[in-house]
Amino acid sequence: MSDHPPPDDEDLTDVVRELYDVPFHRANDVEVVAATPERARLRWPYDESLIGNPAVGAVHGGVISSLADVAGAAPHVGALGDYTPTIDLRVDYIAHATGGDLVAEAEAQRRGGSIGVSDVTVYAGDERVAVGRGVYKLSE
Amino acid sequence: MSDHPPPDDEDLTDVVRELYDVPFHRANDVEVVAATPERARLRWPYDESLIGNPAVGAVHGGVISSLADVAGAAPHVGALGDYTPTIDLRVDYIAHATGGDLVAEAEAQRRGGSIGVSDVTVYAGDERVAVGRGVYKLSE
Amino acid sequence: MSDHPPPDDEDLTDVVRELYDVPFHRANDVEVVAATPERARLRWPYDESLIGNPAVGAVHGGVISSLADVAGAAPHVGALGDYTPTIDLRVDYIAHATGGDLVAEAEAQRRGGSIGVSDVTVYAGDERVAVGRGVYKLSE
Amino acid sequence: MSDHPPPDDEDLTDVVRELYDVPFHRANDVEVVAATPERARLRWPYDESLIGNPAVGAVHGGVISSLADVAGAAPHVGALGDYTPTIDLRVDYIAHATGGDLVAEAEAQRRGGSIGVSDVTVYAGDERVAVGRGVYKLSE
Fold first, then answer.
1. Which chain D residues have a beta carbon less than 8 Å from that of B113?
2. Cβ of D126 under 8 Å from any chain A Cβ?
3. pLDDT over threshold 80, residue A35
4. In angstroms, what separates the C-alpha of D45 from chain B's closest C-alpha?
5. Is C22 on the interface with B (CB under 8 A)?
6. Which of B67, C36, D57, D86 is the most buried (most CB within 10 A)?
7. By the 8 A CB rule, do D43 and D31 touch?
């Protein structure tokens, strides 16, 4: 965090849970496990309806990019107490996600007056399946 | 297309539809409108369960990135007759998606022996809401 | 341009030239051919010292990404009359640059209060060698 | 490294130095400090001709993206013993580079038959000024 280093131990889990209680997350049981101004962990439970590649039984890449997006936003959303529209997102896929529930670990890399940046790693079970980086808008 | 320019008028819609008949697409009614080796159009019908930002009634960014991902893959999937795992995806969000069904227009930019690249524009109704670029793996 | 459509015909070439008269551009003879609030064209003359891959005689990828970066910033720099730090840049390489002077064509895609986005295409002679997208910071 | 974990302690510094002895690197005194199949460190010495933003005395963003590009390629170039054309590169800028020589630390994240992926962090002196991710082509 180069700009506004906030206290790392401030628990924002309830703040983010409330803001993330939206239809898309409810429909998919996306869970905010924990959030601070510095990092967040989110879980998207495995379900057969998430399969995108039946040949190998892999979860759809869109599920992974969706989870990366919201996990990356979570520390900023919590710190701001408001939604932070995504400016851009890059996801690099590393392995097929065939290993159960998806868990994303996000770490805020930067938070200034106008933008926030986060790095995210997505796991399927124990396996790292993707890494991502999101840039989020913090003000108009 | 810098490498293997295929005939633009070859209709691959049925090929892509069959390969895209996967649980995640069925669960979301994602439709392959049309596909050739050069371009594809896909539609994701609007539904209230897709809302990610209730403050402005906007569709979740993850829906948009998911649609960009599969639309970008479609010309390559069709040309190859097989799944093309996503290597990386970048999505730049332009406007809130508050305007109805999502439609993605993909254009293949490059197809070599090992990778394919596509540009995608995502619309909500008439409004352009995001642009993306995906890189896809065409061989082991 | 989704936010602040400026007049397309405003000639900002002199404004950008003055702001781009910096040591790195002078050392490399980078030239601002033309700039408006909507688009810009820049040229980086070919020189043997730019070679990065002697096996095929191709210009270094870093030259191409550098040119994409500053070309993408140019419309925003002109409209703002000030430097616009790059938030992030993605470059997709399409072909080896073996064809002479490099020319970048940039088109502003979005300009809001806090960020600007541009698409860039880089040519070596007549051949399109790369496409890029840059996000630039317009305010603190 | 998900695909072909090579021995981490194999010293490829000489291999990479020889392949990186190209005009663009010589013209800029870019130095391969060290390289293995897993990681690499490169240095680009500070020089006033690298300034891109005279208002704050910052090195040009293109210098940083160039260094990120070649540092990310280095572990793959070494492992392969050949050039690995860049497929795409993303750079996220974190702070102005006003602190002296630039040093890039690259870590290979993946190396398969057709592509390699690396993460790179660029420092100016002690300060982290950018992070990047490159995807490189390992075969035709």
1. 139-140
2. no
3. yes
4. 32
5. no
6. B67
7. yes
pTM for this one? 0.90
pLDDT at A6 over 80: no
The b-or-e profile of C113-124 (16+ CB within 10 A means b, else e) is: ebbbbbbbbbbb
Angstrom distances, CA of residue D97 to CA of A66, A127, D89, D94 = 33, 36, 19, 9
pLDDT tens-digit profile of A77-134? 999 999 999 999 999 999 999 989 999 999 999 998 899 999 999 999 999 999 999 9
Q: How far is A45 from chain D (nearest CA, A)?
A: 24
Could you give the CA distance from residue D53 to residue B43 in angstroms, rounded to a whole number? 44
Query: CB pairs below 8 Å between A and B: how many?
Result: 120
C86-93 and C102-111 as β-strands: parallel, antiparallel, unpaired?
Answer: unpaired
Judge contact between A137 and A129, C-beta under 8 A: no
D62 touches chain C (CB under 8 A): yes
Q: Which two tokens stand for residue C101?
A: 């002077």
What does each C-alpha distance from D7 to D37, D38, D81, D137 come to in angstroms?
Answer: 7, 8, 15, 21
For residue C13, CA distances in Å to B35, C16, C34 come to 42, 5, 5
